[in-house]
Design a protein that fits this description.
Elements (H helix, E strand, L loop, with lengths): L10 E4 L5 E4 L7 H10 L4 E3 L7 H4 L7 H7 L11 H5 L59 H23 L3 E5 L2 E4 H30 L1 H13 L15 E7 L4 H12 L8 E6 L3 H12 L6 E5 L4 H16 L6 H10 L6 H23 L6 E6 L4 H15 L5 E6 L3 E2 L3 H9 L5 E10 L6 H23 L11 E4 H12 L2 E2 L2 E2 L4 H11 L3 E12 L5 H18 L4 H6 L2 H26 L6 H24 L10 H18 L13 H4 L5 H30 L12 H7 L1 H27 L7
Parallel strand pairs: 6-7, 6-10, 7-9, 8-9, 12-16
Antiparallel strand pairs: 1-2, 1-3, 4-5, 10-13, 11-16, 12-13, 14-15
Keywords: Cell membrane, Glycosyltransferase, Membrane, Transferase, Transmembrane, Transmembrane helix
GO molecular function, one term: hyaluronan synthase activity
InterPro entries: Nucleotide-diphossugar_trans
Length: 764
């Protein structure tokens, strides 16, 4: 054995991972000095010699394998010490946390893009489509008419009732007074609204049950069940059921939720002709969603089709090209107002629609004929990213023409589980009257256990559908057939599809409110819409506060945009449609004005307590209806929803009213990778900045109210309360920034330690 000292006879300094950072080159240096040097760098010292058995615990070699150790551990001569900088290169670099720049617009919401022009529409020869007559059934019904005098009186009276109640509320008119307590116009408004809604909703519930039991749709489905069970059904008694296809669209959906949705659609009791999926995008994650579609179907029953262009863009380009060729001048502002009020088409519009329609149908016929689309039960289309309306347009055109769905089409979302009897119950109501053009069902929440907010949203959904929409259904004018569960007659859907895809607002393409505008267009033609509580589905709701605010803001924008889009609808339908729209439009403004006036023009100190108790008490009374209908005491919690409305939904409605022209989608995809994307401080402010203003206005107003009422300026400190919910709204952004700056601090501290070790080369 050589007399040369081996690597194990020297003093080493190791980091916590066991990696060597420096070698002592001074044989006179004591162990205490080595440990002192190590403490300066917060590094664990370890002294190894050939006599110590523990050496094998640090090194991957036996303590006596000197030759291998000297070779692989790269022993440094005593006169060439290892510098700290050289040794730090051996340390694994820590990945910094990704935090977007605070003042850049970096948002995980679905991007809204201008659809790509359809310059090259197809790579296959164009054929002329054979559909000189529609391939679907056209319902025979009398054409709705408007009696001008009757309609005028109805609209004027409806507006007068609502406006007088709201103005009286704003002026604090009192009907009965008991000292500081009184029953005013606000109380009267709430009582009338609650009584009418509950009575009408109850009538609709009983009517729907009666219609469903007597419907041929129910009997026909039962016959199919009997046949499947081996029972014989006499041929003379067999019922021919209408044709129904399902359109489901999505963007980067979670794969498990997407497949569960498709499985639920295949499990429908009612026979489904085709299931049409449209993926809103053709990038990598989008194609993964298209591939997942194939997993839900047998190989011989599904087809994946990649469209190079958007059918909607083809339609719009050909429409505007035809308008330009016809040479009609653009309407003036006054003509636009007249067109809005009377719903008369612009010059050349009918010709342009027909030309664009045939242009798209030629392409559809070419592709569908060559690829045999109609042979497959499930067909999934991927196309360039636009937004939901473009995807819906593709599914409707394919379902009605290329696949020839004769009677009805169901729309649903990619995160929705549709109950097995949902289509049956929807068809019962849709086919109950030729006047009925579209129906919707009860949308429930499957992730209500994710958070208390999700639970409150599930209760709100129940009341929104089983009270508000059920009430509207009693009058035949449901204002929004919900996207997760909406069923339309094919002929009525096709009659409004062209104008629907062309909608713009303030010169911009509309990117949300697709279901509401589609329902609005059907109502504007004088047709009826309905709701059945027997058809159910389970959908997703935001479990986080910020995503919920984004969703409510987006929905509120679509309501304010659509509320008075078609004045003709009010003339066609019952007065309740006018009352409902006017009330929902004005109520947030009046309520906000009342709150601001109450805090900043203080009177007696108990007034806010009385007012809040009244508002939440009414919500508690409403919850009784849910408890009675569902026999579930959980509905008593609906009274708590008043807090969510007051602190989250009310300011979001106001913000939506004044930013209705901002057309970004305002929601995020639901795949795991999309959920993980962070949001910048600037982007978060664009979504929740209005909440900050609202919280501070309330807290400062409350501080002023208390300071004035009790003549004590110390109450002004209550104005800081608004910072608490503000911090909650920015919590994840603040956490991300904190993690990043902590990483920077640790890196700076590590550099300082290395610099301290390098001061004295003899001791390094």
């Amino acid at each position: 054995m050589s007399d040369t000292p081996t690597v194990f006879e020297k003093d080493f300094v190791y980091d916590k991972l066991g990696k060597r950072l420096s070698v002592s080159s001074n044989p006179e240096e004591t162990q205490e000095e080595t440990q002192a040097t190590a403490r300066k760098a917060s590094i664990v010292p370890q002294t190894q010699t050939i006599d110590e058995e523990e050496s094998s615990a640090v090194h991957p070699y036996p303590p006596h394998d000197y030759a291998r150790a000297n070779t692989e551990l790269e022993v440094f001569p005593r006169d060439e010490p290892t510098s700290v900088e050289q040794s730090l290169e051996d340390v694994e670099e820590e990945e910094p946390p990704y935090v977007p720049p605070a003042f850049e617009d970096i948002d995980p919401q679905i991007p809204v893009v201008e659809p790509v022009p359809a310059e090259t529409t197809t790579s296959v020869p164009q054929f002329t489509h054979p559909w000189t007559t529609p391939p679907f059934n056209i319902i025979e019904r009398p054409t709705p008419t408007i009696h001008k005098a009757k309609a005028t009186v109805k609209i004027v009276l409806s507006l007068s009732v609502v406006i007088s109640l709201l103005v009286g509320y704003g002026l604090r008119l009192k009907i009965v007074k008991f000292g500081h307590y009184s029953f005013g116009m606000y109380g009267l408004l709430l009582v009338i609204d609650f009584v009418v809604q509950t009575i009408a909703a109850s009538v609709n519930r009983h009517r729907v049950v009666k219609i469903t039991k007597a419907s041929n749709m129910t009997k026909g489905v039962q016959q199919l069940k009997d046949k499947a069970a081996g029972k014989e059904v006499p041929e003379a008694e067999q019922i021919q059921l209408p044709e129904v296809s399902i359109a489901v669209v999505g963007y980067r959906e979670d794969e498990e939720a997407w497949i569960a949705c498709l499985k639920s659609l295949q499990a429908q009791e009612f026979p489904i002709k085709h299931i049409i999926g449209v993926v809103d995008g053709n990038d990598g994650p989008d194609l993964a969603m298209a591939d997942a579609f194939g997993k839900a179907f047998p190989d011989d029953q599904r087809l994946i089709v990649h469209l190079p262009v958007l059918l909607s863009v083809m339609y719009k380009e050909k429409y505007w090209e035809t308008i330009k060729i016809l040479g009609y001048p653009a309407p003036t502002r006054w003509q636009y107002v007249k067109m809005w009020f009377t719903q008369e088409p612009r010059p050349g519009q009918e010709v342009a629609h027909e030309t664009a329609w045939n242009h798209v149908l030629n392409y559809l016929y070419t592709r569908s004929s060559l690829e045999g689309w109609s042979k497959y039960k499930g067909i999934c289309f991927s196309q360039p990213h636009g937004h939901k309306r473009h995807a819906m347009f593709t599914s409707f055109m394919v379902g009605a023409y290329a696949l020839g769905t004769k009677d009805a089409m169901l729309t649903t979302d990619s995160d929705t589980y549709v109950h097995p009897d949902a289509v049956t119950n929807l068809m019962c109501l849709l086919m109950s009257s030729p006047k009925m053009a579209g129906v919707t069902g009860d949308v429930r929440i499957w992730n209500k256990k994710d958070s208390f907010l999700a639970l409150m949203s599930s209760l709100r959904y129940w009341f929104a559908f089983n009270v508000e929409r059920a009430c509207q259904s009693a009058f035949g004018c449901v204002g929004c057939l919900s996207g997760p569960l909406g069923l339309y007659r094919t002929s009525d859907l096709m009659s409004v599809l062209g104008p629907w895809i062309l909608q713009s607002f303030l010169g911009k393409e509309t990117t949300f409110g697709d279901d509401r505008h589609l329902s609005n267009r059907i109502l504007s033609m004088g047709h009826k819409t309905g709701y059945t509580q027997l058809a159910m589905c389970d959908s997703d709701t935001p479990a986080g506060y910020v995503r919920w605010v984004k969703q409510q803001t987006r929905w509120s924008k679509s309501f304010f945009r659509e509320a008075f889009w078609f004045p003709k609808s009010f003339a066609y339908h019952d007065a309740w449609l006018t009352v409902e729209m006017t009330k929902q439009f004005l109520y947030p403004m009046v309520l906000t004005a009342t709150v601001i006036q109450m805090f900043y023009v203080p009177s007696f100190w108990t007034r806010p307590v009385i007012w809040l108790s009244t508002m939440f008490g009414v919500a508690l009374i409403k919850s009784v209806y849910g408890v009675v209908c569902m026999r579930d005491p959980m509905h008593f919690l609906f009274g708590v929803y008043g807090f969510m409305y007051f602190f989250g939904l009310l300011p979001s409605k106001l913000f939506a009213c004044f930013t209705v022209g901002i057309t970004t989608w305002g929601t995020s995809a639901r795949s795991k990778s999309e959920f993980a994307r962070p949001e910048s401080f600037y982007s978060r402010t664009t979504h929740v900045g209005h909440l900050v203003v609202w919280y501070m206005a309330l807290s400062v107003g409350f501080g002023y109210f208390m300071a004035s009422s009790f003549h004590n300026p110390a109450f002004w400190a209550l104005g800081a309360i608004g910072l608490i919910p503000t911090g909650h709204a920015y919590s994840d952004v603040i956490t991300g920034e904190a993690k990043y700056y902590y990483f920077v601090f640790r890196k700076w501290r590590r550099a300082r330690r290395a610099q301290a070790l390098n001061v004295d080369p003899e001791k390094a």
